[in-house]
Design goal:
This protein has 622 residues and is an alpha/beta fold. The protein has 16 helices and 22 strands. It has a nine-stranded mixed β-sheet. Helix 3 crosses helix 4. The two termini are 41 Å apart. Its EC number is 3.1.4.11. It is a peripheral membrane protein.
């Protein structure tokens, strides 16, 4: 498709497309009209002759025109009727007449700037298209937030300071700020000594990434931690520091965060606190210094060139294998070998600085030292965080899936991308969620379908960054049995999705963006992403040469585990000779979908909301 921006040609309700610089093709702009279902809903709840309501003007979804044509759609909907519509048709039980009137007033204010008491058909149609007034999912926090942290999926970033790829991009506080503004609740920082060994930098070790001072990142977290959510921010630290620099981190964190910083009085927790108890608090998760120092004494093989096989991050190593060493650990070992006794005594004295750092750790972390199965044994009076790579998770879930579920009922499991994802790509998150893993660490600076799924999952629960795990992941049977992700279960419910129409591309794109010689040919693809039995794909027909495509097609999706299913939607523009053009996407948690006719806003490839583009859809559960 031609992507070269052309001069706009809009004349008398039509678009002109110039071909070969000498021929004009004229396409009429069709006004958006309510579908039959919209008209039927209006007629069902409207009444004739409500006082103070004038005839409507303007078309739905951004078009202009009068849809009233004497077919029974010339009535109006007042506050009481609108309340009934929201309750009976949209499933919004508990809506008051006063709330319904406020919605009516807002629609009329946007469309007419006058005082009226009810909605005509066009007003009603426009209301359905306003995604802020008629969103597809519940827009506020509505889940129980008083359970321990281990009961929630938590919006988690990986190497949160990187601006691009894992090998050579800049490190900066800007990606940290963007992540927090999006609602991410877990920020990862890799800590390394600066060149003089007197201060702390944040960077991806043993790569060409340029460092950013730790103090910049901490101040940014302080300033933006609760810009989008009041629930706690967890800082996971991968620290490669000496004891004196660890003490400096403790001093920095205490001074910068002040009362925002939470840490427990006891050395270890028997149960994690709840998100509600940690409102507007920041907590730290890392390995305690004792474990850290033990890990700093590597078993060095005769061939010290083993460090050439190390992956770029200590978190990305294969845990539990002595053969894989970091360059930093080998140099440290050699340095310790060359120290005099007096030097080592000085270092032991500095160990007195450890408690200040250790005291600030709320969530004690670690990686498997032996087998993962052994590490996942649940300790009665102690909870912790365990980190596994995406490959380790796959292997563990294949052989010990119920052990993973059992571990995540009280403890926190963090999954991170494999070390070869140098381009900051991501992995499939559903396997982790299906097994109860709370922290699926993603590279937030990239884009792609996996990241769209992550965005979709955490649109749930008002976008607060914490989503309550389904109850079946937290239950134990009489014989300590837990949910088995491999076990096939019957269909629990069927989701019916009707795609009515789309709107907004004409406002957000040049008229030649999709095709240099004609209006676009849009179609919509829908995917269910969940447990393997529920995965499905559907596609509408292609609507040719139309900026306002009307599909009016319905699809059914039988679901065995709807609590973990995501509905991914993508609009494409058909291209006969090249790859179909991208027209927008979104991803919605099925468990959060609101029944009825809803406006579904679309997002660009990076997950930024488009200004005007949205779909009109209907969701029904059976």
């Amino acid at each position: 498709m031609g992507k070269e921006k052309k001069t706009e040609s809009y004349d008398n309700g039509s678009y002109n497309y110039k071909m070969f610089k000498c021929f004009n093709r004229k396409f009429k702009i069709n006004e958006v009209q309510p579908t039959d279902d919209v008209r039927d809903a209006f007629c069902q709840f409207s009444v004739v002759g409500v006082a103070g309501v004038a005839g409507g003007s303007g078309g739905g979804g951004g078009g202009d025109g009068d849809s009233s044509d004497g077919d029974g759609s010339s009535g109006v909907i007042g506050a009481e009727q609108f309340c009934s519509f929201l309750d009976d048709h949209q499933g919004e039980t508990g809506t008051t007449v006063a709330e319904a009137q406020r919605l009516i007033d807002e629609v009329i204010r946007r469309r007419h700037h006058v005082t009226r008491t009810g909605l005509d058909l066009d007003d009603f149609f426009n209301f359905l298209f306003y995604d802020d007034l008629n969103p597809p999912i519940t827009p506020h926090v509505h889940q129980d937030m008083t359970a321990p942290l281990s009961h929630y999926f938590i919006y988690t970033g990986h190497n949160s300071y990187l601006t691009g790829n894992q090998l050579s991009s800049d490190c900066s506080e800007v990606p940290v700020i963007k992540a927090l503004q999006r609602g991410v609740r877990v920020i990862e920082l890799d800590l390394w000594p600066n060149s003089t060994g007197t201060d702390i930098n944040v960077l991806h070790g043993r790569t060409l990434t340029t460092p950013v001072p730790l103090i910049k990142c901490l101040k940014s977290i302080r300033d933006y931690a609760f810009s989008s959510s009041p629930y706690p921010v967890i800082i996971t630290l991968e620290d490669h520091l000496t004891a004196d620099l660890q003490a400096k981190v403790a001093e920095m964190a205490t001074q910068i965060f002040g009362q925002m910083l939470y840490y427990p009085e006891s050395e270890s927790l028997a149960e994690f606190p709840s998100p509600t108890s940690l409102l507007h608090r920041i907590i730290i998760s890392t390995k305690p210094p004792k474990e850290y120092l033990e890990s700093r004494n590597p078993i060095v093989k005769k061939d010290n060139n083993n460090n050439n096989n190390a992956s770029p991050s200590s978190e990305d190593e294969t845990p539990g294998t002595e053969e894989i060493q970091t360059l930093e650990s080998i140099l440290l070992y050699q340095d310790c070998e060359s120290k005099s006794d007096s030097d080592q005594e000085d270092e032991e004295v500095n160990e007195e600085q450890k408690p200040a750092y250790k005291r600030l750790i709320t969530i004690h972390a670690g990686k498997p030292k032996g087998t993962v199965k052994e590490e996942m044994k649940v300790v009665v009076d102690k909870v912790r965080r365990l980190s596994l790579s995406e490959q380790e998770l796959d292997r563990t879930c294949s052989s010990n899936s119920q052990d993973v579920v059992r571990f995540t009922q009280r403890n926190i499991l963090r999954i991170y991308p494999k070390g070869t994802r140098f381009n900051s790509s991501n992995y499939k998150p559903l396997i982790g969620w299906t097994h109860g893993a709370q922290m699926i660490a993603f590279n937030m600076q990239g884009y792609g379908k996996s990241l769209w799924l992550m965005h979709g999952m955490f649109r749930a629960n008002g976008g607060c960054g914490y989503v309550k795990k389904p109850s079946f992941l937290m239950k134990k049977g009489f014989h300590d049995e837990v949910f088995d992700p491999k076990k096939k279960v019957p269909v629990k419910e069927t989701l019916k999705v009707k795609v009515y129409m789309g709107d907004g591309w004409r406002l957000d794109f040049s008229h030649t963006h999709f095709d240099s010689y004609s209006p676009p040919d849009f179609y919509t693809k829908m995917f269910i992403v969940g447990v393997p039995a529920d995965n499905a794909k559907r596609k509408t027909r292609i609507i040719e040469d139309n900026w306002y495509p009307i599909w009016d097609e319905e699809f059914s999706f039988p679901l065995t585990v709807p609590e973990l299913a995501l509905l991914r939607i993508e609009v494409r523009e058909y291209d006969m000779s090249e790859k179909d053009d991208f027209g927008g996407q979104t991803c919605l948690p099925v468990a959060e979908l609101r029944p009825g006719i809803r406006s579904v806003p679309l997002y660009d490839k990076k997950g930024e909301k488009m200004k005007s583009v949205r779909l009109l859809m209907r969701f029904v559960f059976e």
